[in-house]
Amino acid sequence: MFYIIGLGLSDEKDVTLRGLEAIKNSTRVYLEAYTSILMIQKERLEAFYGKELILADRDMVETESDEILHNAANEDVSLLVVGDPFGATTHTDIILRARALKIPTRVVHNASIMNAVGACGLQLYGFGQTVSLVFFTETWKPDSFYDRIKENADLGLHTLVLLDIKVKEQSEENLARGRKIYEPPRYMSIPTAVSQLVEIESLRATGILDPNRTLAIALSRVGGGDDNQRIVAGTLAELLAHPADAFGEPLHSLVIVGKRLHHLEVDYAEDFAINRETWRVVARDVYGCSLD
């Protein structure tokens, strides 16, 4: 059996009992280590599970999956992923490969940012398409995300923006020369994300990301408890001017608030607002939210 097991969002204790049982019964256990990160080192996972973990990088998962799936038809093999298994298309792909090889598969679900984002106070049924935001370079500034945000905005829906993670990436020079030299890990911060959004808004100029009239909520280390989790709400302009260290440690996510904003959502998220008065004024005057 090939298991793909979600680990949740925080630490070793977030694994489900069903997932833990599968891990303990597996002859090989791989830890997918590039589409997201846990807030702890793998040694803590190994101590808790009582199993050695094999780190599975991008190359192994995407191009060398035969190694992971080897003999999985005859023994239990597990692939551990942060969050939920279906949070990344990579994991769907490896399940399809296993099925093509007639290997029985089983998915063990867990919490992910896709549902834990509700911690900010916005209702999950009010979200539209989720988008990813990549690091801009001097010569590459993809803006297709803007069209998806606009589609959501036109329907009044919130947009969850997932921020870029660069793990085991090669520079263009090293990639061209075939050198296995990797850049240090990078995780996009809220200030970087907001500045990129505002930059594209200045070019598109539809107003959906107007810095002074668009409410947004920044989240970091969701699911990590009060000691680690940070939630900060405000206009895009306020988030951009806010001290970078106020957003906490990565991973960061950002929510662009939709115009169907409910007064209970306003009240809940107000506790996280940089400026409560501004938060309520923009919600009332720009978003048309009826507040007492």
UniProtKB/TrEMBL annotation:
Gene3D superfamilies noted in UniProt: Cobalt-precorrin-4 Transmethylase, Domain 1, Methyltransferase, Cobalt-precorrin-4 Transmethylase, Domain 2
Keywords from the named record: Methylation, Methyltransferase, S-adenosyl-L-methionine, Transferase
Catalytic activity annotation: 2-[(3S)-amino-3-carboxypropyl]-L-histidyl-[translation elongation factor 2] + 4 S-adenosyl-L-methionine = diphthine methyl ester-[translation elongation factor 2] + 4 S-adenosyl-L-homocysteine + 3 H(+)
A GO molecular-function annotation: diphthine methyl ester synthase activity
Domain of life of the native organism: Eukaryota
Binding site for S-adenosyl-L-methionine: L9, D84, G87, S112, I113, L163, V222, H252
Domain Tetrapyrrole methylase, chain residue ranges per copy: 1-239
Associated pathway: Protein modification; peptidyl-diphthamide biosynthesis
Catalytic EC class: transferase
Biological-process GO terms, alphabetical: methylation; protein histidyl modification to diphthamide
Assembly and interaction partners: Homodimer.
Physiological role: S-adenosyl-L-methionine-dependent methyltransferase that catalyzes four methylations of the modified target histidine residue in translation elongation factor 2 (EF-2), to form an intermediate called diphthine methyl ester. The four successive methylation reactions represent the second step of diphthamide biosynthesis.
The protein's name: diphthine methyl ester synthase
